[in-house]
Amino acid sequence: MNKELLIRILQATVIIVILLIFLFLSFGINVFTLAGVSKLPSILSLVVLFWGFYFSIGWKWPVLKSIAKRENLNGTWFGTYTSKNQLTSTVFDGEIAVVIRQNFLVVDVKSFTDKYINYSYGEALNYDNKSDKHQLIYLYSQNDFKPTDDNERRGTSELQIHYDFKSKELFGNFWTNHNSQGYLNLKQISSKQAKSFNEALTYSKK
After folding, report:
1. CATH of domain 75-204
2. Using an 8 Å Cβ cutoff, are 102 and 73 in contact?
3. Is 77's pLDDT higher than 90?
């Protein structure tokens, strides 16, 4: 959880407390009096309940997601990749599926091609307030158990998130430890999480 996210949560908490104080006042309860102080634990409980709800499912709701600026990327994404070996200039391209499992704090990314499976580690979902852009950054490896093994193909992806009324897209660059650099272009095709490339391919044709 980065600094900007913590600040937004703190700001939202202050606003919620102020709204609750006004709500109590509308019922004739002044929390700033000696008698009203006894109601402060009730305010605290309501704040805790709200954040418990928000961190579990509320952050996914369109009407509430602007509080923490956390995009819901859960599901299967399908598209294309293009990569170029920087030493030999050999170009590779093809179809790729990316499956994302996410809760408020954790993002897990698994990608499938017809030949390879990559597992993410070191994920970060960022929001830039100045540009109003969301970015998904993650390291990945073909070894789920030893992701930093130098003998395995590893890489880094930096993807921008674009939403409109019709579609959701992920696009951006990736680099590998095999001297290649490439580009991903993905669209979300299902809220379900495919378990294989062929299953994702089936979703893409619906």
Report:
1. 2.40.128
2. yes
3. yes
